[in-house]
Amino acid sequence: MTQQNTVVAQMRQLIQILAQHNHAYYVMDQPTITDSEYDQLFHQLKALEQQYPEWTQPDTPTNKVGGKPLAKFESVTHVVPMLSLGNVFNQEELFAFARRIEERLPNQKIEYDVELKFDGLAISLWYEHGVLVRGVTRGDGEMGEDITQNVKTIRNLPKVLSHASGVVPELLEVRGEVLMPKAGFNKLNKQLKKSGEKEFVNPRNAAAGSLRQLDSQITKTRPLAFYAYGIAQCEPENKIETIAKSLDWLTEFGFENYNHWVVNSIEEAQAKYEQLTVERPNLSVEIDGMVVKVNSFEQQRILGFVSRAPRWAVAYKFPAESKTTEIRQIDWQVGRTGILTPVARLVPIFVGGTTISNATLHNIGEIHRLDVRIGDKVEVYRTGDVIPKVKRVKFDLRLPNKEYERIELPSCCPVCNSPIIMPEGEALARCSGGLYCAAQRIEAIRHFVSRKALDIEGLGDRWVESLLHLDLLKDVADIYHLHEHREKLLTIEKMGEKSVQNLFDAIENSKKTTFARFIYALGIRGVGETTARMLANTFQTFAALQQADIDALMKTPDVGNITAEWIYDFFQAPHNLEVLERLFAAGIHWDAPVAPSRQPLNGESWVVTGTLSSMGRDEATQLLQALGARVSGSVSSKTKCVVAGEKAGSKLDKAEKLGIAVINEAEFIQLMQDYGQLEA
């Protein structure tokens, strides 16, 4: 062994020992050695690094982790999507899950890997040649946020991989959960309380708030821990055949995976669940259930996926804690998209670790299903130990000689007084004053100025919030009167003469648009880009669209009865008409309609997926729409063709299974050239 190998091996051993003691001290609040013993190990490592600085390891605890605070997190696309799991809540549902697996794997021995379902945040870690290069949140499963600086501060997470064999993968993507163990959470809240700061409600909120700090130096002070639960990618392949063995393999690189068990039947999995329900309060971490996975990777491959979840795994959730309290009144809240949500105001009650005084009732249908009334005693629980909800009415506690007020859907919006509408067959009621309602104002303006709508560059969220604060934007029509308030705009921080003039120019340029863009910009429920274009082609003029009845609207391709009702109701709301009049008075206009002609891809449904090297997906979508195609975000039996770029993923797999035509980027470009959409 060379001198370098010997020194590096000593450094790696010290780094791993210090990481274990750091985790025990900072996270678990259970020191395993004295401070002086820890200091001795620390200085031993530091002395080696001073003697051999060229061999200092990148994950050494002697270095300060994290640099300059970030302005924001960058978005990152997951190469392998981080899919969610289906849920089961009782033995019957768990056994039904197992029966479906047995039907697809007849006469095969099936083992299950059982793991704790942590109440934390799922993340993905990328290692290249053994070095941690990226940490990403789950996000929406397709795209997450780059939190690399923050994950590097997590004390039990290896930043450089080493193995007894001396071999590490060229690429390793590890999936796992970041959480805050109970001891660390309690210690942190005591510190926050002592310093007069706001305490965290529960460990999950504490972990989320710590992991999403823009300053990694703050994250570094938080007692976070990472527990691995799987491998998304490994190059070269490790040839491991089961989940259990892959988790054990990860521990050889320094990852912690807490506990997992291999069981030979679903009955054994149920027994483990019952054991965990008893042991849960004594665990060092918060869990909200357990995860049951088919252990064999080959059997997983055969089982495949359904929708956005694997067939071979399920989350077996614990029942939520519930308590009984009284409903004092019902308030109706209007969301940014106009949805009315009934909120029960409760006599405060302590449930699942926190005092709650409000609970959602979802919609009017849920109120009628439960038969909730003012004054009722109700059972309240917290789903996922987070969101308070009303479970049921305690009818046995209703007093025989007391009047209990029934709850009905309001006829007018509690914010703007516009009519409330709920089409037949719909569960959600909405305010019809989309352009006018103050509750929907931010969302309406954000949508109106977006690139695919009126495309007013520079009028971002920060400016919109400032303008709302100055009371300069009550609705979208006020955008075209901002030039009357130049001096007031100049008082806003970071808004100089040039910025203000650029904004005015962008607003002026937006007055010339297209009929389809304007329809889309109105933000009518159910009217996306494709539907807006279909409406523009069908009605040709705004007056014709505004005067159309539901039957006429339903003759438009892509418009069903519910969407037709939403469009019709939008133009019946007086406040919306007032805003429209002001928009046209401000100068919004478009070219006269051109008689539509038969297009080569008219009515065909296409899907664009993956990464295209010569253009973005939006540009490809516009090229297809110009030829009459409808561009969808999902593959179905009605899909005519899929344009597949690099790393196309699950949509390409589904298209191939359904036998749908697939073309690559070169073939797509050739097709567009043949139709004259692109130059040859």
Describe the structure.
With 680 residues, this protein is an alpha+beta fold. The chain is 36% helix and 22% strand. It has 24 helices and 28 strands. The strands form nine sheets. Strands 2-13-10-3-9 form a five-stranded mixed β-sheet. A five-stranded antiparallel β-sheet has the order 16-15-14-18-19, with helices on one face. The chain has a four-stranded antiparallel β-sheet with strand order 5-4-7-8. The termini are far apart.
Radius of gyration, taken over Cα atoms and rounded to an integer in Å: 29 Å
Strand order of the largest sheet: 2-13-10-3-9
Shape: globular
* Number of helices in the DSSP assignment: 24
Head-to-tail CA distance between termini: 62 Å
β-strand amount: 15-25%
User: Largest sheet at a glance?
Assistant: 5 strands, mixed
Classify the helix fraction into a percent range: 25-40%
Ranges where pLDDT stays below 50 over 5 or more residues in a row are none
Provide mean pLDDT, rounded: 87
**Helix vs. strand class:** alpha+beta
- The number of distinct β-strands equals 28
